[in-house]
Amino acid sequence: MVxxxxxxxxxxxxxxxxxxxxxxxxxxxxxxSKRASSVMTRYDVISRCIYEYNDxxxxxxxxxxxxxxxxxxxxxxxxxxxxxxxxxxxxxxxxGKFQKHVNLACVQREFISNNMIEARKTAExxxxxxxxxxxxxxxxxxxxxxILGIFTAISFAMMGSLQLLGTIFNxxxxxxxxxxxxxxxxxxxxxxxxxxxIFVLFVGMRKILGGKEKTWVWLSMIVVVVISGLLFGIxxxxxx
Length: 240
Description:
The chain is mainly α. The chain is built from 8 helices and no strands. The protein has helices spanning 4-18, 25-33, 43-52, 55-64, 76-85, 92-168, 177-208, 215-239. Helix 2 (25-33) crosses helix 5 (76-85), helix 3 packs across helix 6 (92-168) and helix 7 (177-208) packs antiparallel against helix 8 (215-239).
């Protein structure tokens, strides 16, 4: 059940927010200030109301209780001035506490709101950093697996090609021009295939790591192709 005095205080604050020009506002405040229960000093009720108001309503409350508001505009000072001019009795001590309580509640609300905004920004930043860290971790794993796959492919190719070369060079105990020609042809083809394979794999690894191929890489590939072509050409000539 709502306390009747609390209800009066809530209505007073709502009037200040929504209708500060109300004709009998000064009489209501004078009457409430003289109540024995000192309803206008209920800081718990004042705080609850202030915390429930939106930003626009808070600005109206803060403007009403400012000390430098012109008397032509509705304000706490004008209420006191009207009561003094009309010689209406009111509890000036309660009036002072009421003003202080409202201003303090406004300051506390602003402080809490700012802290909530900062906390929200911190939480969003932490979420963003965690997301970026997760993406980087996934990217590192992907690159590692890709590089591992490249070196695995090179290893298998090298092992298979070495076995093939061993078979080719197994019959060189009594070399002849024709045999040497076949061997040089096979060596040239082997050199071209292996060079192209290694070149493609390393270029792929370079792409994964986010770099560009250097000029010397292309020059090396051209030199290998030229040498392989010479070997194949000489071998083809000798085998005929």
